[in-house]
Every structure is written in structure tokens, then in C-alpha cells.
Amino acid sequence: MKNITEALMWRYATKKFDTNKKLNDEALNQILEAGRLSPSSFGLQPWKFILVENTELRAKLREAGYDQAQITEASHVLIIASRNDLSEDYVDNYMKSTALAQNVTVDTLSEFKSYLMNTISSKPNAEVIKNWNARQVYISLGIMLETAALLEVDTCPMEGFENAKYDELLGLNELGYSSVVMLTLGYRDESDESLKRAKSRFGTEEIIIRK
């Protein structure tokens, strides 16, 4: 297995996938588990990961994704969606899950719940909360990208799609979620033109500021 720096140098946004190569369940599950274990603000995990396996649905997603080939050619397609709100019911469910994981009663978490609800209620409007949730999604995306690179699984994160159409196709409206970003997973086709380009990043001295 590559170290983290080697893995990040190796990865690139794959534009052309080898349609004959498929991820095995072990690699796929490791990437999904990395997403599930990703950090989020207050640990609220305001996301859903939709693994699209139906080929007809993937074709429809490609149509609403500006005909980008990765959507049907990659081994797997993952849509990451965020919650539209943070209701008290959702927080209560999170409290129950936390109490179970920590082997405590829900009552012992009452102070934490009050703090959470006060934080949520301090947001000026529902749109701010929706945007806050959407930003959390990129944390899990980053963790999954890194995990995939360590496993030498190719990826392409994609925002170029019709979100409203995706929400409709995936039934996200009924769940109270909205699509944010897509992650295609698989193995590179060696003819991919993007593979021939050297990785371009600003140097350390241009990015890192020390005070």
C-alpha cells in the first residue's frame, strides 16, 4: 500500500474509466466505511450516501449530468446528499445513537442536546442551516477520496449535474435531503488523456503561511 503522499500524488480526477474493471466488495466497503466514519460538525452526520447500482438509473443520471461518461462507465457511482434541516427529531435520534455507542442514558446527554439546539436555533434562517449541512459533505468526500487513493482505486468527484433532477430521480425530496456532489469510482483506462498530464499544484511556499 502507498503512503499518503504517494497516494495523493498518484490520484487524479479520472475522466476515462476501464469498463472491464470493477471494484470488489472489500474495496468498495472500505471506501463507504471511511465516509461513514468521517468527522462532521458536532458529529451530526447530516448526509446520506446513495450508491447507484441500477444501470437504467445511471443512464438517466448521465443524461442529467451533462452526458459525462464517467457516470455510466465507472465501476460505481456514489451521490452524496445533505439534509435540508436539523430538526429536533433528528437531534433526538442522534442523541439515542450517541447514548447507545457510549453506553449511557439519553438523559445524561441533555446538556449536550440543549447546546446543539441552541446552536441550531441561532442560525438566522433555514437556508443557512441547509448550506452548513452541505459543507459537511465535503469532509466525507475528502476522506473517501484519500481512502480510495490509498487502495489504488481511481475516482472523479463531480458537481456538474442538475441537482433538482437528481433529487427527483433518487427520491431525495421525500427524505428531506438534497444532492450535493457525486463520486465516481473505478479503475483508470490507460488511454485517459488526463493521465498523461503532470500533477499541477502550487509549491509549499505559496500555500503554507507560518506566523
Key descriptive features of the protein:
alpha+beta; 10 helices; 47% helix; globular
CATH architectural group: 3-Layer(aba) Sandwich
Please bin the fraction of helical residues. Answer: 40-55%
**Coarse morphology:** globular
Spatial order of the strands forming the largest sheet? 1-2-4-3
Number of helices: 10
User: Could you give me the name of the CATH homologous superfamily?
Assistant: NADH Oxidase
**Tally of domains:** 1
Quick recap of the structure?
This protein has one domain (4-207): NADH Oxidase, CATH 3.40.109.10. The protein is 47% helix and 14% strand.
Q: Can you describe this structure?
A:
There is one protein chain. By secondary structure, the chain is α+β, with helices and mostly antiparallel strands. The protein has a single domain (4-207), classed as NADH Oxidase (3-Layer(aba) Sandwich). It has 10 helices and 4 strands. Strands 1-2-4-3 form a 4-stranded antiparallel beta sheet, sandwiched between helices. Helix 2 (25-36) runs antiparallel to helix 7 (126-150). The model has no long low-confidence stretch (mean pLDDT 97).
